[in-house]
TrEMBL record:
Species of the source: Trichoplax adhaerens
This protein's record includes keyword Ribonucleoprotein: no
The name this protein goes by in its record: Galactokinase
InterPro entries (alphabetical): Galactokinase, Galactokinase_CS, GalKase_N, GHMP_kinase_C_dom, GHMP_kinase_C_sf, GHMP_kinase_N_dom, GHMP_knse_ATP-bd_CS, Mevalonate/galactokinase
GO biological process: galactose metabolic process
Length: 390
């Protein structure tokens, strides 16, 4: 859904809720990761693009000594409103309920400047829990909103902004995520995917705007909960594997070294986890190069290998994701398909010839009736939205 529609909805809700017009607004997009999964916290490469779908925050300063937020983004079964005292040294914000507000509170607590009282409305078109980074889009949208509401004393660059949002998620949502989601939500560019070196934090934009190629997202509508034990436990297994091999991170391990060291792993599950990461880092770089050369066949093959590795070695896929990937690959004109994001449900991403996309959607839905499919172009990263004159 276009950002201007979400923005209009947020403004209308703000007006009816607070009887005033908002004065500032910011938005942050969701993302789809094309390849490079579970590599960011291993100092590896990731290759996401920003979605056109985004979270929007509108609001204004308030004379009351409290921050009030209404969301029209959440599921109906969760509280839609929250109020809390402004963050201060004496009374720092703490995580609590409702859980969606923790992303916001975390951003306020990590904002490099004072945040006064405000009223705000949040609206989003990023599917929740779909592996399309609805949480990072909320954090980044909220940070962008705060930059308009309470400009920081010193200018803040994109990297520091993304890192502050990542810290918000670590501290307030208890999710030890890597940097991919916040980086792409801040730095996405229309028509481009972004190769991120998660060690040096260097980035490279790669054109993703061939008119004959479509990125198709298929939501299994199976909900995942990444703050559960699986994500942190995978992260720990990766760190322990690197340690066992005497390396700082799995980024420093070659495939040959890993194979040679296989017998050192008393736990072969740990070996397979490491094998996914080491091979995925290689695939990710190869895939970015393939895309630069418009070699979609190679890109697609790497996507499928990525999915198999996530399914068999890293074990973060699920039967529903495997089904939609398999269905997509049965269609002529689909170059590649894989699960995207943290896993355990959520979405798959497929690279499809434009003329095959309707056929692909029909085939996927015929085989998995719960699927929701949509195509997307690479969108822009976070930005302020100007509010028309009152
Ligand atoms: C989640 C995390 F937030 C990212 O940092 C990344 O690790 C991803 O899972 C898996 O690639 O989205």
């Amino acid at each position: 859904m276009a950002v201007d529609i979400i923005f209009e909805r947020a403004c209308k809700t703000f007006q009816s809720k607070y009887q005033q017009k908002p004065t500032v607004a910011g938005c942050g997009p969701g993302r789809v990761n094309l390849i490079g999964e579970h590599t960011d916290y291993n100092d590896g490469f990731v290759f996401p693009m920003a979605l056109q779908d985004a979270t929007v925050v509108v609001g204004r300063l308030s004379a009351r000594n409290e921050c009030r937020i209404t969301t029209i983004a959440e599921r109906a079964d969760l509280p839609h409103e929250v109020e809390f005292l402004p963050h201060s040294k004496d009374q720092p914000l703490q995580p609590g309920k409702p859980s969606w507000a923790n992303y916001v509170k975390g951003v306020i607590a990590n904002y490099p400047g004072p945040v006064p009282s405000f009223d705000a409305v949040i609206a989003s078109s990023v599917p929740l829990g779909g592996g399309l980074s609805s949480s990072a889009s909320l954090e980044v949208a909220f940070f962008t909103f705060l930059q308009q509401l309470a400009p920081t004393p010193n200018p803040i660059d994109d990297k520091d902004k993304a890192l502050a949002c990542q810290k918000a998620e670590h501290d307030f949502a208890n999710m030890p995520c890597g940097i991919m989601d916040q980086f792409i939500s801040v730095m996405g560019k229309e028509g481009k995917a972004l190769l991120i070196d998660c060690r040096s934090l260097e980035t490279r934009l790669v054109a993703m705007n061939d008119p004959n190629i479509v990125v198709l997202i298929t939501n299994t509508n199976v909900h995942h909960e990444l703050t559960g034990s699986e994500y942190p436990s995978r992260r720990r297994q990766c760190e322990e594997s690197a340690k066992l091999l005497g390396k700082k991170s799995l980024r420093d391990v070659t495939m040959e070294e890993l194979k040679e060291a296989q017998s050192q792993f008393t736990d072969q599950e740990m070996y397979r986890r490491a094998r996914h990461v080491v091979s995925e880092i290689i695939r990710c770089e190869q895939a970015a190069r393939a895309l630069e050369n418009s070699d979609f066949e190679t890109f697609g093959t790497l996507m499928v290998q990525s999915h198999e590795s996530l399914r068999d070695d890293f074990e973060v896929s699920c039967p529903e994701l495997d089904t939609v990937v398999k269905l997509a690959m049965e269609v002529d004109g689909v170059y590649g398909s894989r699960m995207t994001g943290g896993g355990f449900g959520g979405c798959s991403v497929s690279l499809v010839e434009k003329k095959a996309v309707e056929r692909a959607i029909k085939h996927i839905k015929a085989g998995y009736s719960n699927a929701t499919c949509f195509t997307t172009l690479a969108g822009d990263g976070a930005r302020p939205i100007s509010i028309p004159d009152q």
